[in-house]
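[Backbone geometry]
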Amino acid sequence: MDSIIEVQRQTHEEVERFQLALSDILARPNAGHRHNLVNQHKAKDLLSRVVDRTVDLNNLYLDPESERHKEIEILTEKVIPGKQDDLTEFYSRLSRIRTYYTRYPNAAVGGIEEEVAAIVGDEEEAYDDEDDPVARLFTGEESFGRYLDLNTHHTLYCNLKYLTKRLGYLQYLDTLIATKDAPIGHELSKDCKSTKEYEAYLLSLKSYLVSFLDRTQPLDDNDKKLKKMEDEFDQLWEAGKIDDGNGAAETKTNGTPAPAGEGIWCAACHKFYSKQTVYDAHLQSKKHIKAAERLNGESSASVPNGNGTSQPQSRRRVLALLTYQTTALLRSLNSVLMDTKSNVERRFALTSRERELELEEEPVEVAPPAEDGQQEEEEEERIYNPLKLPMGWDGKPIPYWLYKLHGLGVEYQCEICSDQTYMGRKNFERHFQESKHTFGLKALGLPNTKHFHEITKIADALALADKLKQEGRLEIMQTETMEEMEDEDGNVYSRKTYEDLKKQGII
């Protein structure tokens, strides 16, 4: 076994290696959402190993009973004349080391390089979702941390007691987005928010949001954020500025009349009573006693009178704290909620076949604009586009549903424009007013009028021009034949006959 001093030296080396690897990962360029998230999780793994090694080192240095102090005493033992010299212990240990490596010549030394390489990996490394440990942290709905998967919590929300209206998924997301201006559950009744099911729903939603932050922001100290939220809540709770959703802001103790004129609130029965006498009378009823026992976990003998509290302050505080923390977490994730709603609306517009193609297609990672010399190299990177979709304004292929909506898969060819092909009906109709089509018609000696709209063949355009000329001549002849003229005597002639008679001097 290595000496304690060698163990400490090796641990120091491991800490330095992990720190160097950590600096390399953090210095990697921004290569898209997925790559950045993978790098953050690798950095978190390295940080945890640095902390563990540092704690071990600290214990070895501070423990007075550790092997380190014994080792130092042996190595610094004074030489006794006539017994041994100061190199005896050294040669003894050297002999044991040589014997060990003679017996095991292939024994590995250290191994820290392999450990660091296994964590850091290659910068250009590409994982399948089955092999990538970070991808396994997210569901398909979350799309590698881009969106929230709240389907389970939507089900819990719809199964709440005293819920007046069950919302669809998009409407439910709207209520969560609205927490930017109001606390969560603002649309629910007091009876609904005082149930155990609502408390379980809030606890589940808060746990999921904390888990989502841990997975998408691994380098942030989310425990510290929650502790800060709790400290802020304590200050507001002591100042009486927190509404726990059960009338705490209006009724400080159970049985006290509410200023809003709603009556006297009984938290055990979830009811308001119009008068104090009615409230006092119901306290002796069996229904109230059983409800108070379920709520407080106490016997019926400890049921308070009209001046006491039927609902424990601890439960009210826990519910108010859950509401406060969940609302704060939703506000911090408001942009993700908006993206989630947009994604759900987009997926609702897709057909089943389009959803299958979207799942089969690998997501495209688009890096932000590069700096200086890196820009040209990153522009040359090929974007994965197996369906050969047109590129959008952001440099990514447009969605498949938009491609189908505009009919961009249909080709239109125009012979007048030198066999130019136009994708989609909209582009095809627009090109008739463009300069290229006008130039092609002028080359044929034809004007670009509305008569030639939708004409793409040269032969059809020339035939139409001849037909228009013939119709023009016939129209002139018909005009000359059908137009009538009247002389001074009142005789009516056709225009052609009138002009002939006038030339002959008869008229």
